[in-house]
Amino acid sequence: MEYLLIFLTGLLLILLIFQNSFEIPNLLKPLGRMHPLVLHLPIGVFFICCLALIFRKEFPDELFSRVFGILTILNAFFGVLTALLGLFLSIEPGYDADALYWHKWWGAAFAIEATLLYFFHNRFSNSRLILSAGLTFVILLITGHLGAEITHGENFLFESWAKEEEESFDANKPVYTAAVLPILESKCFACHNDQKQKGRLNMSSIELMLKGGKNGPLWVAGDAINSHLTERIKLPMEEKKHMPPKGKPQLSTDEIAILVNWIQEGADTSKTTLELPEKSELRAAVEKKYFSEKEKSYDFTAADESVIAEVSSPFLKIEPLALNSPALRASFFVRQKFENDKLQQLGQLAEQIVSLNLNKMPVTDEDLANLSKFKNLESLYLNQTDITGEGLKNLQGLENLNHLSLAGCKLETSSIDILKELSFLTDLYVWDTGIPAEKWHSEFQGVNIHTGYEADPNEIIKLNTPLVENKNKVLKNGEKVVLKHTLPNVKIVYTTDYTEPDTLSGNVYQEPIVFKDHGHIKARAVKDGWLASDLVSFSFFSSVYKALSSKLLTQTNKQYPGKGAQTVIDQKAGDIDNFKDGSWLGFKENNAEILIEPGSEAKGLTFSYLIDAGSYIMPPVSVELWGGNAPESLQKIARKTPDQLSGYVTKKAEGISFEFEKDYKYLKIIAKPIRKLPNWHRGRGDKGWVFTDEIYLW
Question: Is the pTM of this model over 0.90?
Fold first, then answer.
């Protein structure tokens, strides 16, 4: 092994000195990817060497010499091997040349020092041995520090010593600085910095982010769906291009919402949170992450579980306010089942109840006397109860009560004087109480008065979108699509050809819509004096018959097995926003080949598939229908080629239909996934997916 060690050490030095004069063979390049794995071996063995030195007196000299010799030659061998693999890895693009240069030479220094430690450890006195080990440790520390800077960013090893206390969110700072940049720093900068640029992308400044990497700009302002950043973070975890990579800290739902909406709303680097419109989705995402109520700690003891069980009922739900919190939330349901003695019983949990919901219960002013003992109550909901206001005097001792909701209660004017005595209130909800809104606002100072929506006679209001009465996207036995709107005299315009309807084009909805096999509706509501509603889309599939059986002739991808073959004949449409819900079968490596036994007089079939280009889920290249009286003797009936995408589109469920005249005992569908994604796609050249949720018979 000594000769091998000498050879590898010499090879390492030659490669380092002449690294610019030759190329690493392609066969050896993948070995470089093992560098992050192997580098832990010399570190571990070296620290065992150090432990052996510390406890040297516990071993006989001869035993120590043998053990220490084995440890040091392993340390040297792994050190040289790690340095060689690191050299192979360094030829890959995306690393800062200066940082890489010093890391390579310090890594080689560790390998050489470890080799010298092995060959000369028997000649060193104990003090010189300790000195040599100490030098090796210093070199290891410097090498590790430089490597960590390449992998995780500048000063990674020592940044925790100098890290200042995290600043609280400031709504007066630009959204980019206060909300977007911290997300990118924590989840992206480790692989895209001045020292390391995976994909030739450096994110250490806004200018470099706008420049982008080998795939072009990082985002397209105002177009989140076609932005490289948002596409990568929304890819399935198992996709190799998903970001952050599998095994790294992933983005939370709130963080994704901030990034997506920031890009969609223009990727402005100067606008503050307070400058965003009230209805801005970006503002809502930021406020949800930074201003939502944080979990509060309580110093009272948790309630006895047996008491909670005794008081609870099907019409009284008692649950913890948060995980491992002693605070409880109580909610009453079903007005006809309300019992006054249950409210009295709840007094056994008076110390722990911090939120009490009595909305729509037949609660009277007299019943509020039962609440005087709930000293820790913070939120009380009395909307649409029978109180008139006199019983509110019972709340005067509840000094923790901040939120009180009385919407829909017919209150006496004298209630205002009683409520003004509740100086601890911060929020009061009092619309539809019979008392004018201006009266509430004029009487209360320092309290947030919520009196509901107040119409501006000069304001032009946008209509809400049309609704569909059908509860299921699967239309069974000739069922028709019924559209409706919640306001009177509203006209619904719609199309079924994927164009967008407006007041000048599109059909006016007058009667339920019939689909022979499948269809797609785009609709909006219009009315004189109102702004037209947003566009809304609905997809429907007709199902007259249910197949007797189904069988998968090819395997799905193991990540998306659905519920097996039964998935495509259960007459349940899959959720297009959650293709992992068990309602979809995913095919990537294989064609989707599915055999069904129609068992009916069906004269048509619709194969339903998903389109979500951002997740690499594309229309099938072709769909074939085969039929016959035995599975082994099927003949091709028809072949169709769905329109392929020329760019990113809104995700949707689509279908391709076949008609046939003969009765077939067996039918087989063959849907072929795209083998190479087109050049316009971020994953160009990669395999695409085919996802199907159902085969409908009609």
Answer: no
